[in-house]
Amino acid sequence: MSANLSALLYLVAGVLFILSLRGLSSPASSRRGNLLGMAGMLIAVLTTLANHPPADGLAWVLVILGIAIGGGIGAVIARRVPMTSMPELVAAFHSLVGMAAVLVAAGAFYAPEAFDIGTAGNVHQQSLVEMSLGVAIGALTFTGSVIAFLKLSARMSGAPIILPARHVINIALAVLLVVCIIGLVVSGSAVFFWLNV
Q1: Which terminus in the chain has less CB density within 10 A, N or C?
Q2: Residue of 187 and 85 predicted with greater confidence
Q3: Whose CA is closest to 197, among 137, 126, 127?
């Protein structure tokens, strides 16, 4: 598959994901939103498999098994969870999306040849920037969604947690994150990768 066709298909999948989220914002359009999300995921998975097919029969079995297990668990949970618990379910699933972003970035960092982004210890700088942002956003999504789940399910107080000097702490953390991103791009070091996480 050509790089241009692949990029176009990933763009289509991304647009379908955005339309899916928009559709999920209303009960009247949620069914259509789910269908658009499933179509986007199907396009993304098939494009990835076409670009990087599994190496042998065992790898194909693992891919199919992973899709079947994940889809089966999702289907069972979706059928059992009452509508009143849907916000917690969405937060819980969203946390898994953040964790998946971190794990995919870690996989790309440790096996860059599989992602066509360089070789071990010599990952392309553009890919390191994308990886850093993906890891940071994924880790923040994971932790934020876990807190949202805990608050929505009343396992944690819904009251805001207000730290003294919180703005200074947030600015310091943002500066530290930028330093870690630059450190990873310049050095390619696993230490900076995990500091980003």
Answers
A1: N
A2: 187
A3: 137
